[in-house]
Design brief:
The complex is a heterotrimer of chains A (70), B (350) and C (219). Chain A is mainly alpha-helical and 70 residues long. Helices cover 96% and strands 0% of the residues of chain A. In chain B, strand 8 and strand 9 form a beta hairpin. In chain B, helix 2 runs parallel beside helix 7, helix 3 crosses helix 5 and helix 4 runs antiparallel to helix 5. Chain B is elongated. The chains are: A mainly alpha (70), B alpha+beta (350), C mainly alpha (219). Chains B and C meet through helix 4, helix 5 and helix 6 of B and helix 6, helix 7 and helix 8 of C.
Protein backbone atom coordinates (compact mmCIF):
# COMPACT_ATOMS: atom_id res chain seq x y z
CA UNK A 1 0.00 0.00 0.00
CA UNK A 2 2.82 2.32 0.91
CA UNK A 3 4.48 1.69 -2.45
CA UNK A 4 1.32 2.56 -4.31
CA UNK A 5 1.25 5.94 -2.59
CA UNK A 6 4.89 6.52 -3.42
CA UNK A 7 4.24 5.70 -7.05
CA UNK A 8 1.26 8.00 -7.24
CA UNK A 9 3.33 10.71 -5.59
CA UNK A 10 6.13 10.31 -8.13
CA UNK A 11 3.67 10.32 -11.00
CA UNK A 12 2.02 13.49 -9.70
CA UNK A 13 5.34 15.22 -9.25
CA UNK A 14 6.32 14.30 -12.79
CA UNK A 15 3.05 15.32 -14.39
CA UNK A 16 2.43 18.51 -12.44
CA UNK A 17 5.13 20.75 -13.91
CA UNK A 18 4.13 19.85 -17.44
CA UNK A 19 0.49 20.48 -16.60
CA UNK A 20 1.44 23.89 -15.27
CA UNK A 21 3.53 24.62 -18.32
CA UNK A 22 0.78 23.53 -20.67
CA UNK A 23 -1.90 25.69 -19.09
CA UNK A 24 -1.35 28.79 -21.13
CA UNK A 25 0.49 27.15 -23.94
CA UNK A 26 3.72 28.51 -25.29
CA UNK A 27 3.08 32.06 -24.11
CA UNK A 28 3.28 31.10 -20.49
CA UNK A 29 6.72 29.58 -20.77
CA UNK A 30 7.94 32.46 -22.89
CA UNK A 31 6.79 35.13 -20.48
CA UNK A 32 9.27 37.06 -18.38
CA UNK A 33 12.18 36.13 -20.60
CA UNK A 34 11.51 32.36 -20.44
CA UNK A 35 12.38 32.27 -16.74
CA UNK A 36 9.96 29.33 -16.35
CA UNK A 37 12.28 27.19 -18.43
CA UNK A 38 14.90 27.73 -15.74
CA UNK A 39 12.32 26.89 -13.07
CA UNK A 40 11.36 23.69 -14.92
CA UNK A 41 15.01 22.66 -15.25
CA UNK A 42 15.70 23.19 -11.55
CA UNK A 43 12.48 21.36 -10.65
CA UNK A 44 13.43 18.37 -12.79
CA UNK A 45 16.85 18.17 -11.14
CA UNK A 46 15.26 18.42 -7.71
CA UNK A 47 12.70 15.71 -8.52
CA UNK A 48 15.42 13.48 -9.94
CA UNK A 49 17.39 13.74 -6.72
CA UNK A 50 14.20 13.12 -4.68
CA UNK A 51 13.43 9.98 -6.68
CA UNK A 52 16.98 8.83 -6.05
CA UNK A 53 16.51 9.49 -2.34
CA UNK A 54 13.29 7.45 -2.33
CA UNK A 55 15.05 4.49 -3.92
CA UNK A 56 17.88 4.81 -1.40
CA UNK A 57 15.32 5.03 1.39
CA UNK A 58 13.75 1.75 0.31
CA UNK A 59 17.12 0.05 0.12
CA UNK A 60 17.96 1.17 3.63
CA UNK A 61 14.55 -0.02 4.89
CA UNK A 62 15.23 -3.48 3.48
CA UNK A 63 18.62 -3.48 5.14
CA UNK A 64 17.11 -2.45 8.47
CA UNK A 65 14.52 -5.21 8.24
CA UNK A 66 17.23 -7.75 7.63
CA UNK A 67 19.30 -6.54 10.55
CA UNK A 68 16.27 -6.52 12.87
CA UNK A 69 15.38 -10.08 11.87
CA UNK A 70 18.78 -11.42 12.73
CA UNK B 1 35.32 19.53 14.30
CA UNK B 2 35.88 15.85 13.61
CA UNK B 3 32.75 15.84 11.48
CA UNK B 4 34.09 18.73 9.44
CA UNK B 5 37.39 16.97 8.81
CA UNK B 6 35.79 13.84 7.42
CA UNK B 7 33.05 15.50 5.45
CA UNK B 8 34.63 18.80 4.37
CA UNK B 9 34.13 18.10 0.68
CA UNK B 10 30.40 17.66 1.15
CA UNK B 11 30.19 21.00 2.94
CA UNK B 12 32.30 22.51 0.21
CA UNK B 13 30.04 21.11 -2.51
CA UNK B 14 26.86 22.28 -0.83
CA UNK B 15 28.33 25.72 -0.06
CA UNK B 16 29.41 26.14 -3.67
CA UNK B 17 25.97 25.07 -4.89
CA UNK B 18 24.24 27.52 -2.53
CA UNK B 19 26.38 30.34 -3.93
CA UNK B 20 25.73 29.09 -7.46
CA UNK B 21 21.97 29.06 -6.86
CA UNK B 22 21.98 32.53 -5.31
CA UNK B 23 24.27 34.09 -7.90
CA UNK B 24 22.67 32.16 -10.71
CA UNK B 25 19.17 33.33 -9.93
CA UNK B 26 19.71 36.80 -8.47
CA UNK B 27 22.17 38.48 -10.81
CA UNK B 28 20.10 40.26 -13.47
CA UNK B 29 20.45 39.95 -17.19
CA UNK B 30 21.95 42.92 -18.97
CA UNK B 31 19.67 45.08 -21.07
CA UNK B 32 18.72 43.77 -24.46
CA UNK B 33 16.44 44.32 -27.40
CA UNK B 34 13.64 41.79 -27.82
CA UNK B 35 12.05 43.00 -31.01
CA UNK B 36 11.60 45.85 -33.45
CA UNK B 37 8.35 46.70 -35.22
CA UNK B 38 9.69 46.45 -38.77
CA UNK B 39 12.09 44.08 -40.43
CA UNK B 40 12.86 45.82 -43.71
CA UNK B 41 13.81 49.30 -44.84
CA UNK B 42 13.49 51.03 -48.22
CA UNK B 43 15.83 53.73 -49.54
CA UNK B 44 15.16 57.35 -48.58
CA UNK B 45 12.40 56.64 -46.08
CA UNK B 46 12.07 57.87 -42.54
CA UNK B 47 12.18 54.52 -40.77
CA UNK B 48 10.21 54.49 -37.51
CA UNK B 49 11.14 51.55 -35.34
CA UNK B 50 9.21 50.71 -32.19
CA UNK B 51 11.85 49.02 -30.06
CA UNK B 52 10.93 46.58 -27.29
CA UNK B 53 13.66 46.35 -24.73
CA UNK B 54 14.32 43.83 -21.98
CA UNK B 55 15.60 45.03 -18.58
CA UNK B 56 16.14 48.44 -20.13
CA UNK B 57 15.75 51.78 -18.35
CA UNK B 58 14.86 54.14 -21.19
CA UNK B 59 13.01 56.53 -18.85
CA UNK B 60 15.80 56.77 -16.29
CA UNK B 61 18.51 57.40 -18.82
CA UNK B 62 19.57 60.71 -20.23
CA UNK B 63 20.53 60.98 -23.87
CA UNK B 64 19.94 57.50 -25.23
CA UNK B 65 21.50 56.86 -28.63
CA UNK B 66 20.76 54.42 -31.46
CA UNK B 67 22.52 53.32 -34.61
CA UNK B 68 21.84 50.97 -37.49
CA UNK B 69 25.17 49.41 -38.32
CA UNK B 70 26.08 47.89 -41.69
CA UNK B 71 29.64 46.82 -40.91
CA UNK B 72 32.63 48.04 -38.96
CA UNK B 73 32.79 51.16 -41.16
CA UNK B 74 29.30 52.29 -42.13
CA UNK B 75 26.40 53.11 -39.84
CA UNK B 76 23.31 55.35 -39.60
CA UNK B 77 22.69 57.44 -36.51
CA UNK B 78 19.12 57.88 -35.32
CA UNK B 79 17.40 61.19 -35.99
CA UNK B 80 15.10 60.97 -33.00
CA UNK B 81 14.68 58.77 -29.92
CA UNK B 82 11.23 59.05 -28.32
CA UNK B 83 10.84 57.16 -25.05
CA UNK B 84 7.39 55.74 -24.25
CA UNK B 85 8.24 53.83 -21.07
CA UNK B 86 11.17 51.93 -19.54
CA UNK B 87 11.10 49.20 -22.17
CA UNK B 88 9.47 50.82 -25.19
CA UNK B 89 10.83 53.55 -27.44
CA UNK B 90 10.33 54.78 -30.98
CA UNK B 91 13.53 55.37 -32.88
CA UNK B 92 13.62 57.14 -36.24
CA UNK B 93 16.30 56.84 -38.93
CA UNK B 94 16.82 58.59 -42.25
CA UNK B 95 17.62 55.73 -44.58
CA UNK B 96 20.21 56.58 -47.33
CA UNK B 97 19.51 56.26 -51.06
CA UNK B 98 21.65 53.17 -51.49
CA UNK B 99 24.27 50.88 -50.11
CA UNK B 100 27.91 52.00 -50.00
CA UNK B 101 28.85 48.74 -51.70
CA UNK B 102 27.28 47.04 -54.72
CA UNK B 103 24.39 44.84 -53.81
CA UNK B 104 20.64 44.86 -53.36
CA UNK B 105 20.15 43.66 -49.82
CA UNK B 106 22.06 44.06 -46.56
CA UNK B 107 21.26 43.23 -42.93
CA UNK B 108 21.53 46.12 -40.49
CA UNK B 109 22.31 45.64 -36.82
CA UNK B 110 20.51 47.82 -34.29
CA UNK B 111 22.63 49.24 -31.48
CA UNK B 112 21.13 51.14 -28.57
CA UNK B 113 23.19 52.82 -25.93
CA UNK B 114 22.50 54.78 -22.76
CA UNK B 115 24.40 55.43 -19.58
CA UNK B 116 22.21 53.24 -17.33
CA UNK B 117 21.99 50.02 -19.36
CA UNK B 118 25.16 50.24 -21.39
CA UNK B 119 25.12 49.04 -24.98
CA UNK B 120 22.57 46.54 -26.32
CA UNK B 121 22.65 44.96 -29.74
CA UNK B 122 20.06 43.25 -31.92
CA UNK B 123 21.89 41.55 -34.81
CA UNK B 124 20.22 41.65 -38.25
CA UNK B 125 17.37 43.75 -36.92
CA UNK B 126 16.41 45.35 -40.23
CA UNK B 127 17.04 44.20 -43.74
CA UNK B 128 17.85 47.06 -46.12
CA UNK B 129 16.47 46.37 -49.61
CA UNK B 130 17.71 48.52 -52.51
CA UNK B 131 16.29 48.52 -56.01
CA UNK B 132 19.21 49.79 -58.02
CA UNK B 133 22.61 48.31 -57.59
CA UNK B 134 24.62 51.54 -57.92
CA UNK B 135 26.52 52.21 -54.74
CA UNK B 136 26.41 55.46 -52.85
CA UNK B 137 28.18 56.45 -49.67
CA UNK B 138 25.85 59.37 -49.13
CA UNK B 139 23.87 59.43 -45.91
CA UNK B 140 26.15 56.87 -44.26
CA UNK B 141 28.11 57.69 -41.17
CA UNK B 142 31.72 56.59 -41.48
CA UNK B 143 32.95 57.56 -38.06
CA UNK B 144 33.39 54.85 -35.47
CA UNK B 145 30.65 54.73 -32.83
CA UNK B 146 31.74 56.85 -29.93
CA UNK B 147 30.61 57.45 -26.39
CA UNK B 148 29.34 53.91 -25.81
CA UNK B 149 28.70 53.12 -22.17
CA UNK B 150 29.69 50.10 -20.14
CA UNK B 151 27.18 48.71 -17.73
CA UNK B 152 28.48 49.38 -14.24
CA UNK B 153 27.20 46.43 -12.18
CA UNK B 154 27.52 42.71 -12.80
CA UNK B 155 25.05 41.16 -15.22
CA UNK B 156 24.77 38.09 -17.37
CA UNK B 157 24.80 38.71 -21.10
CA UNK B 158 21.47 39.04 -22.87
CA UNK B 159 21.12 36.65 -25.80
CA UNK B 160 18.16 36.85 -28.04
CA UNK B 161 16.93 33.27 -28.19
CA UNK B 162 18.18 32.35 -24.74
CA UNK B 163 16.96 35.27 -22.63
CA UNK B 164 16.75 34.20 -18.98
CA UNK B 165 17.44 30.56 -19.84
CA UNK B 166 21.12 31.49 -20.03
CA UNK B 167 21.00 30.75 -16.29
CA UNK B 168 20.58 27.06 -17.15
CA UNK B 169 24.30 27.13 -17.85
CA UNK B 170 24.77 26.67 -14.11
CA UNK B 171 22.21 23.90 -13.66
CA UNK B 172 22.07 21.87 -16.85
CA UNK B 173 25.57 22.07 -18.32
CA UNK B 174 27.46 20.97 -15.15
CA UNK B 175 25.36 17.77 -15.10
CA UNK B 176 27.13 16.66 -18.26
CA UNK B 177 30.55 17.32 -16.75
CA UNK B 178 29.46 15.60 -13.54
CA UNK B 179 28.27 12.58 -15.51
CA UNK B 180 31.60 12.25 -17.31
CA UNK B 181 33.55 12.59 -14.04
CA UNK B 182 31.36 9.92 -12.38
CA UNK B 183 31.71 7.51 -15.30
CA UNK B 184 35.47 8.03 -15.33
CA UNK B 185 35.54 7.37 -11.57
CA UNK B 186 33.51 4.22 -12.23
CA UNK B 187 36.04 3.02 -14.83
CA UNK B 188 38.95 3.78 -12.51
CA UNK B 189 37.29 1.74 -9.74
CA UNK B 190 36.75 -1.08 -12.23
CA UNK B 191 40.45 -1.04 -13.13
CA UNK B 192 41.28 -1.06 -9.42
CA UNK B 193 39.00 -4.05 -8.92
CA UNK B 194 40.71 -5.99 -11.68
CA UNK B 195 44.08 -5.44 -10.02
CA UNK B 196 43.05 -5.82 -6.38
CA UNK B 197 40.08 -8.23 -6.50
CA UNK B 198 38.68 -6.28 -3.57
CA UNK B 199 34.86 -6.48 -3.77
CA UNK B 200 34.63 -2.97 -2.33
CA UNK B 201 36.21 -1.55 -5.48
CA UNK B 202 33.51 -3.27 -7.49
CA UNK B 203 30.81 -1.77 -5.27
CA UNK B 204 32.39 1.67 -5.70
CA UNK B 205 32.40 1.24 -9.45
CA UNK B 206 28.72 0.29 -9.32
CA UNK B 207 27.82 3.27 -7.13
CA UNK B 208 29.66 5.80 -9.35
CA UNK B 209 27.90 4.27 -12.32
CA UNK B 210 24.49 4.71 -10.67
CA UNK B 211 25.15 8.35 -9.83
CA UNK B 212 26.49 8.88 -13.36
CA UNK B 213 23.29 7.47 -14.83
CA UNK B 214 21.21 9.72 -12.57
CA UNK B 215 23.16 12.77 -13.76
CA UNK B 216 22.95 11.58 -17.35
CA UNK B 217 19.17 11.19 -17.23
CA UNK B 218 18.74 14.55 -15.52
CA UNK B 219 21.06 16.17 -18.04
CA UNK B 220 19.11 14.71 -20.95
CA UNK B 221 15.70 15.70 -19.56
CA UNK B 222 16.72 19.23 -18.61
CA UNK B 223 18.58 19.58 -21.90
CA UNK B 224 15.45 18.53 -23.77
CA UNK B 225 13.32 21.10 -21.92
CA UNK B 226 15.87 23.83 -22.58
CA UNK B 227 16.24 22.82 -26.22
CA UNK B 228 12.48 22.83 -26.75
CA UNK B 229 12.18 26.44 -25.63
CA UNK B 230 15.25 27.78 -27.39
CA UNK B 231 16.06 25.63 -30.42
CA UNK B 232 12.48 24.52 -30.94
CA UNK B 233 12.62 20.72 -30.55
CA UNK B 234 13.13 18.37 -27.63
CA UNK B 235 15.68 16.32 -29.47
CA UNK B 236 17.85 18.36 -31.77
CA UNK B 237 20.26 15.59 -32.76
CA UNK B 238 23.10 17.33 -31.09
CA UNK B 239 26.50 15.83 -30.30
CA UNK B 240 26.41 16.08 -26.54
CA UNK B 241 22.81 14.88 -26.46
CA UNK B 242 23.76 11.87 -28.58
CA UNK B 243 26.80 11.16 -26.50
CA UNK B 244 24.91 11.21 -23.20
CA UNK B 245 22.19 9.03 -24.70
CA UNK B 246 24.73 6.45 -25.89
CA UNK B 247 26.58 6.58 -22.57
CA UNK B 248 23.26 5.93 -20.83
CA UNK B 249 22.54 2.98 -23.13
CA UNK B 250 26.00 1.55 -22.49
CA UNK B 251 25.71 1.85 -18.74
CA UNK B 252 22.11 0.66 -18.82
CA UNK B 253 23.47 -2.45 -20.51
CA UNK B 254 26.01 -2.62 -17.69
CA UNK B 255 23.17 -3.11 -15.22
CA UNK B 256 21.50 -5.69 -17.45
CA UNK B 257 24.81 -7.54 -17.53
CA UNK B 258 25.13 -7.44 -13.75
CA UNK B 259 21.59 -8.66 -13.23
CA UNK B 260 22.05 -11.55 -15.64
CA UNK B 261 24.56 -13.17 -13.27
CA UNK B 262 24.04 -14.51 -9.79
CA UNK B 263 27.54 -15.50 -8.78
CA UNK B 264 29.09 -12.54 -6.94
CA UNK B 265 32.70 -12.99 -7.91
CA UNK B 266 32.24 -13.56 -11.63
CA UNK B 267 29.59 -10.85 -11.69
CA UNK B 268 32.06 -8.28 -10.39
CA UNK B 269 34.84 -9.47 -12.70
CA UNK B 270 32.83 -9.54 -15.89
CA UNK B 271 31.10 -6.24 -15.09
CA UNK B 272 34.48 -4.57 -14.53
CA UNK B 273 35.80 -5.90 -17.84
CA UNK B 274 32.70 -4.65 -19.68
CA UNK B 275 32.89 -1.28 -17.93
CA UNK B 276 36.46 -0.64 -19.08
CA UNK B 277 35.86 -1.87 -22.60
CA UNK B 278 32.61 0.08 -22.95
CA UNK B 279 34.14 3.35 -21.83
CA UNK B 280 36.83 3.16 -24.50
CA UNK B 281 34.27 2.69 -27.27
CA UNK B 282 32.87 6.12 -26.36
CA UNK B 283 36.13 7.83 -27.38
CA UNK B 284 35.31 8.38 -31.08
CA UNK B 285 32.31 10.44 -30.03
CA UNK B 286 34.56 12.80 -28.08
CA UNK B 287 36.71 13.59 -31.12
CA UNK B 288 35.00 12.84 -34.37
CA UNK B 289 31.44 13.90 -34.42
CA UNK B 290 31.84 17.33 -32.77
CA UNK B 291 34.14 18.31 -35.61
CA UNK B 292 31.76 17.22 -38.32
CA UNK B 293 28.28 18.14 -37.28
CA UNK B 294 27.37 21.67 -36.49
CA UNK B 295 26.67 21.37 -32.80
CA UNK B 296 24.16 23.59 -31.12
CA UNK B 297 26.33 23.45 -28.06
CA UNK B 298 28.99 26.03 -27.19
CA UNK B 299 32.08 26.25 -29.29
CA UNK B 300 30.59 24.71 -32.42
CA UNK B 301 29.24 26.63 -35.36
CA UNK B 302 27.47 29.92 -34.98
CA UNK B 303 25.08 29.11 -32.22
CA UNK B 304 23.73 31.47 -29.62
CA UNK B 305 24.45 29.36 -26.56
CA UNK B 306 27.74 30.13 -24.92
CA UNK B 307 31.37 29.82 -25.87
CA UNK B 308 33.60 32.53 -27.20
CA UNK B 309 32.18 35.87 -26.33
CA UNK B 310 29.01 34.33 -24.92
CA UNK B 311 30.55 32.85 -21.80
CA UNK B 312 31.83 36.11 -20.48
CA UNK B 313 33.76 36.77 -17.32
CA UNK B 314 30.73 37.23 -15.07
CA UNK B 315 29.37 33.83 -16.10
CA UNK B 316 32.67 32.00 -15.89
CA UNK B 317 33.01 33.06 -12.27
CA UNK B 318 29.84 31.08 -11.51
CA UNK B 319 30.08 28.36 -14.15
CA UNK B 320 33.41 26.83 -13.09
CA UNK B 321 32.44 26.63 -9.41
CA UNK B 322 29.09 25.17 -10.52
CA UNK B 323 30.89 22.28 -12.25
CA UNK B 324 32.86 21.56 -9.07
CA UNK B 325 29.77 21.88 -6.87
CA UNK B 326 27.57 19.57 -8.92
CA UNK B 327 30.38 17.03 -9.29
CA UNK B 328 30.93 16.97 -5.53
CA UNK B 329 27.19 16.47 -5.07
CA UNK B 330 27.35 13.56 -7.53
CA UNK B 331 30.24 12.01 -5.61
CA UNK B 332 28.25 12.39 -2.41
CA UNK B 333 25.25 10.66 -3.97
CA UNK B 334 27.53 7.87 -5.16
CA UNK B 335 29.10 7.57 -1.73
CA UNK B 336 25.70 7.10 -0.04
CA UNK B 337 24.78 4.40 -2.51
CA UNK B 338 28.16 2.73 -1.99
CA UNK B 339 27.76 2.71 1.79
CA UNK B 340 24.38 1.00 1.54
CA UNK B 341 25.81 -1.58 -0.85
CA UNK B 342 28.79 -2.15 1.42
CA UNK B 343 26.56 -2.85 4.42
CA UNK B 344 24.44 -5.20 2.34
CA UNK B 345 27.55 -6.99 1.14
CA UNK B 346 28.79 -7.34 4.70
CA UNK B 347 25.46 -8.71 5.88
CA UNK B 348 25.28 -11.26 3.08
CA UNK B 349 28.78 -12.56 3.66
CA UNK B 350 28.37 -12.62 7.40
CA UNK C 1 53.23 -24.17 -30.46
CA UNK C 2 53.89 -20.48 -30.92
CA UNK C 3 51.04 -17.98 -30.72
CA UNK C 4 50.95 -17.27 -34.46
CA UNK C 5 50.87 -20.99 -35.27
CA UNK C 6 48.05 -21.50 -32.80
CA UNK C 7 46.12 -18.61 -34.32
CA UNK C 8 46.55 -19.96 -37.86
CA UNK C 9 45.50 -23.40 -36.72
CA UNK C 10 42.40 -22.06 -35.01
CA UNK C 11 41.39 -19.93 -38.00
CA UNK C 12 41.67 -23.01 -40.20
CA UNK C 13 39.55 -24.90 -37.71
CA UNK C 14 36.90 -22.15 -37.84
CA UNK C 15 36.79 -22.34 -41.64
CA UNK C 16 36.52 -26.12 -41.64
CA UNK C 17 33.72 -26.02 -39.06
CA UNK C 18 31.92 -23.34 -41.04
CA UNK C 19 32.02 -25.39 -44.22
CA UNK C 20 31.02 -28.56 -42.44
CA UNK C 21 27.90 -27.05 -40.90
CA UNK C 22 26.73 -24.90 -43.77
CA UNK C 23 23.44 -23.88 -42.23
CA UNK C 24 24.93 -21.02 -40.19
CA UNK C 25 26.65 -19.21 -43.02
CA UNK C 26 23.87 -19.92 -45.50
CA UNK C 27 21.38 -18.54 -42.99
CA UNK C 28 23.23 -15.23 -42.90
CA UNK C 29 23.58 -15.17 -46.69
CA UNK C 30 19.88 -15.79 -47.00
CA UNK C 31 19.23 -12.99 -44.52
CA UNK C 32 21.33 -10.52 -46.53
CA UNK C 33 19.84 -11.43 -49.88
CA UNK C 34 16.24 -11.52 -48.73
CA UNK C 35 16.57 -8.20 -46.87
CA UNK C 36 18.03 -6.59 -49.97
CA UNK C 37 15.16 -8.00 -51.97
CA UNK C 38 12.54 -6.78 -49.46
CA UNK C 39 14.14 -3.33 -49.39
CA UNK C 40 13.98 -3.13 -53.14
CA UNK C 41 10.43 -4.51 -53.28
CA UNK C 42 9.21 -1.83 -50.87
CA UNK C 43 11.17 1.15 -52.26
CA UNK C 44 11.56 0.26 -55.98
CA UNK C 45 13.84 3.23 -56.43
CA UNK C 46 16.54 3.77 -53.89
CA UNK C 47 17.78 7.34 -53.55
CA UNK C 48 21.35 7.67 -52.32
CA UNK C 49 20.22 8.39 -48.79
CA UNK C 50 18.03 5.29 -48.53
CA UNK C 51 20.65 3.12 -50.20
CA UNK C 52 23.25 4.27 -47.73
CA UNK C 53 20.96 3.78 -44.71
CA UNK C 54 19.79 0.33 -45.82
CA UNK C 55 23.36 -0.75 -46.50
CA UNK C 56 24.43 -0.04 -42.95
CA UNK C 57 21.30 -1.50 -41.38
CA UNK C 58 21.73 -4.75 -43.28
CA UNK C 59 25.48 -4.88 -42.52
CA UNK C 60 24.95 -4.19 -38.82
CA UNK C 61 22.38 -6.94 -38.34
CA UNK C 62 24.36 -9.37 -40.47
CA UNK C 63 27.36 -8.63 -38.24
CA UNK C 64 25.42 -9.32 -35.05
CA UNK C 65 23.99 -12.53 -36.53
CA UNK C 66 27.37 -13.68 -37.72
CA UNK C 67 29.21 -13.01 -34.49
CA UNK C 68 26.64 -14.45 -32.09
CA UNK C 69 27.94 -17.91 -32.74
CA UNK C 70 31.59 -17.09 -32.11
CA UNK C 71 31.44 -17.55 -28.35
CA UNK C 72 27.82 -17.60 -27.35
CA UNK C 73 26.71 -20.56 -29.38
CA UNK C 74 29.73 -22.68 -28.62
CA UNK C 75 29.19 -25.39 -26.08
CA UNK C 76 30.94 -25.12 -22.74
CA UNK C 77 32.73 -28.41 -23.08
CA UNK C 78 34.19 -27.48 -26.44
CA UNK C 79 35.42 -24.19 -24.99
CA UNK C 80 37.04 -26.01 -22.10
CA UNK C 81 38.74 -28.30 -24.57
CA UNK C 82 40.30 -25.39 -26.48
CA UNK C 83 41.57 -23.64 -23.43
CA UNK C 84 43.43 -26.67 -22.31
CA UNK C 85 45.05 -27.03 -25.70
CA UNK C 86 45.90 -23.45 -26.71
CA UNK C 87 46.41 -20.08 -25.05
CA UNK C 88 43.31 -17.92 -24.50
CA UNK C 89 44.86 -15.11 -26.55
CA UNK C 90 45.11 -17.39 -29.56
CA UNK C 91 41.41 -18.21 -29.24
CA UNK C 92 40.41 -14.54 -29.03
CA UNK C 93 42.65 -13.30 -31.85
CA UNK C 94 41.79 -16.14 -34.17
CA UNK C 95 38.08 -15.53 -33.66
CA UNK C 96 38.56 -11.81 -34.28
CA UNK C 97 40.48 -12.37 -37.50
CA UNK C 98 38.01 -14.97 -38.69
CA UNK C 99 35.05 -12.71 -37.88
CA UNK C 100 36.69 -9.73 -39.58
CA UNK C 101 37.13 -11.78 -42.76
CA UNK C 102 33.55 -13.04 -42.51
CA UNK C 103 32.16 -9.53 -41.98
CA UNK C 104 34.20 -8.12 -44.85
CA UNK C 105 32.82 -10.83 -47.13
CA UNK C 106 29.31 -10.19 -45.92
CA UNK C 107 29.49 -6.42 -46.39
CA UNK C 108 30.99 -6.77 -49.87
CA UNK C 109 28.22 -9.21 -50.67
CA UNK C 110 25.62 -6.74 -49.39
CA UNK C 111 27.24 -4.05 -51.53
CA UNK C 112 27.08 -6.22 -54.63
CA UNK C 113 23.53 -7.36 -53.93
CA UNK C 114 22.30 -3.80 -53.36
CA UNK C 115 24.32 -2.60 -56.35
CA UNK C 116 22.95 -5.34 -58.57
CA UNK C 117 19.33 -4.73 -57.65
CA UNK C 118 19.23 -0.99 -56.99
CA UNK C 119 22.30 0.50 -58.65
CA UNK C 120 25.58 1.59 -57.17
CA UNK C 121 25.75 5.21 -55.90
CA UNK C 122 29.30 4.89 -54.58
CA UNK C 123 31.52 7.58 -56.09
CA UNK C 124 34.74 7.12 -54.20
CA UNK C 125 35.46 3.40 -54.48
CA UNK C 126 38.68 3.38 -52.45
CA UNK C 127 37.13 5.37 -49.59
CA UNK C 128 34.07 3.12 -49.49
CA UNK C 129 36.12 -0.07 -49.51
CA UNK C 130 38.33 1.44 -46.84
CA UNK C 131 35.24 2.14 -44.74
CA UNK C 132 34.13 -1.48 -45.27
CA UNK C 133 37.50 -2.81 -44.11
CA UNK C 134 37.45 -0.55 -41.07
CA UNK C 135 33.88 -1.55 -40.28
CA UNK C 136 34.75 -5.24 -40.53
CA UNK C 137 37.71 -4.71 -38.22
CA UNK C 138 35.89 -2.52 -35.68
CA UNK C 139 32.71 -4.62 -35.57
CA UNK C 140 34.68 -7.84 -35.30
CA UNK C 141 36.89 -6.61 -32.44
CA UNK C 142 34.03 -5.10 -30.45
CA UNK C 143 31.40 -7.75 -31.04
CA UNK C 144 33.74 -10.71 -30.60
CA UNK C 145 34.83 -9.38 -27.24
CA UNK C 146 31.24 -8.60 -26.22
CA UNK C 147 30.31 -12.08 -27.36
CA UNK C 148 32.94 -13.45 -25.00
CA UNK C 149 31.50 -11.35 -22.18
CA UNK C 150 27.96 -12.50 -22.94
CA UNK C 151 29.09 -16.10 -23.14
CA UNK C 152 30.70 -15.84 -19.72
CA UNK C 153 27.71 -14.04 -18.22
CA UNK C 154 24.73 -16.11 -19.19
CA UNK C 155 25.48 -17.58 -22.58
CA UNK C 156 22.49 -16.20 -24.41
CA UNK C 157 22.26 -14.28 -27.64
CA UNK C 158 19.93 -11.57 -26.36
CA UNK C 159 22.55 -10.34 -23.96
CA UNK C 160 24.99 -10.00 -26.85
CA UNK C 161 22.55 -7.72 -28.65
CA UNK C 162 21.88 -5.65 -25.53
CA UNK C 163 25.58 -5.21 -24.79
CA UNK C 164 26.75 -4.98 -28.37
CA UNK C 165 24.46 -2.40 -29.96
CA UNK C 166 25.31 0.57 -27.73
CA UNK C 167 29.03 -0.18 -28.03
CA UNK C 168 28.81 -0.29 -31.82
CA UNK C 169 26.99 3.04 -32.19
CA UNK C 170 29.99 5.41 -31.80
CA UNK C 171 32.07 3.42 -34.29
CA UNK C 172 29.10 3.09 -36.61
CA UNK C 173 28.41 6.84 -36.51
CA UNK C 174 31.98 7.56 -37.53
CA UNK C 175 31.80 4.95 -40.29
CA UNK C 176 28.55 6.41 -41.57
CA UNK C 177 30.19 9.82 -41.88
CA UNK C 178 33.01 8.23 -43.87
CA UNK C 179 30.80 6.27 -46.22
CA UNK C 180 28.45 9.24 -46.64
CA UNK C 181 31.48 11.02 -48.05
CA UNK C 182 32.11 8.12 -50.40
CA UNK C 183 28.49 8.05 -51.58
CA UNK C 184 28.40 11.82 -52.00
CA UNK C 185 25.89 12.69 -49.29
CA UNK C 186 28.52 14.71 -47.44
CA UNK C 187 31.50 16.60 -48.68
CA UNK C 188 34.01 16.76 -45.91
CA UNK C 189 37.55 17.14 -47.10
CA UNK C 190 39.09 16.30 -43.74
CA UNK C 191 37.70 12.74 -43.65
CA UNK C 192 41.22 11.34 -43.36
CA UNK C 193 41.12 12.32 -39.68
CA UNK C 194 38.14 10.00 -39.22
CA UNK C 195 40.14 7.19 -40.79
CA UNK C 196 42.98 7.79 -38.35
CA UNK C 197 40.58 7.92 -35.42
CA UNK C 198 38.89 4.69 -36.49
CA UNK C 199 42.22 2.92 -36.95
CA UNK C 200 43.47 4.11 -33.58
CA UNK C 201 40.24 3.22 -31.77
CA UNK C 202 40.34 -0.25 -33.39
CA UNK C 203 43.91 -0.74 -32.24
CA UNK C 204 43.10 0.56 -28.77
CA UNK C 205 40.10 -1.77 -28.46
CA UNK C 206 42.17 -4.69 -29.74
CA UNK C 207 44.91 -4.03 -27.19
CA UNK C 208 42.33 -3.63 -24.45
CA UNK C 209 40.54 -6.83 -25.46
CA UNK C 210 43.81 -8.77 -25.42
CA UNK C 211 44.71 -7.28 -22.05
CA UNK C 212 41.30 -7.92 -20.47
CA UNK C 213 40.57 -11.36 -21.94
CA UNK C 214 42.56 -13.37 -19.37
CA UNK C 215 40.60 -11.66 -16.56
CA UNK C 216 37.38 -12.60 -18.27
CA UNK C 217 38.43 -16.16 -18.75
CA UNK C 218 39.90 -16.98 -15.36
CA UNK C 219 37.58 -19.56 -13.85
Amino acid sequence: MKHVFIRIFILLMLVLPFQLAAQDGADYSRSIGKIYVVVAVILVIFLGIVIYLISLDRKISKLEKRIDNE
Amino acid sequence: MKQLKAHWWKFLGVAILVIVFLKGMLVPLSAGIISVSRNSAKPLENLQLVVKGYNTHFKDSKGPQAWLKLDSLYSIQCSSFIVADQTTATVAFWIPAGLPYEGTRAPLTLIIDNEVDGTSVLPFAVSFVVNDIASTGQGWNVEALEGLHERTHTTYPFRNILNETIRNTYFHVPLWFGMMVLFIASVISAIKYIRSKDPHDDLKSLAFCRAGILFGILGLVTGAIWAKHTWGAYWSWDVKQNMSAIALLIYGAYFVLRNSMSDNDSQARIAAVYNIFAFVTLIPLLFVIPRLTDSLHPGNGGNPALGGEDLDHSMRMVFYPAIIGWTLLGVWIAQLSYRVDRLKHKLLNH
Amino acid sequence: MTLSKEILFLIRKEFILEFRQKYAISGILLYVLSTVFIVFASFFQLPKQVWHTMFWVITLFAAINAIVKSFVQESGSRQLYYYQLVSPHAVLISKMIYNALLLLTLSILTWFALGFIAGNPVRDLSLFSGALCLSALGFSITLTFVSAIAAKASNNATLLAILGFPLIIPILMTLIKLSANAVGLLSDTAYINDVYILISIDMLLLALAIFLFPYLWRD
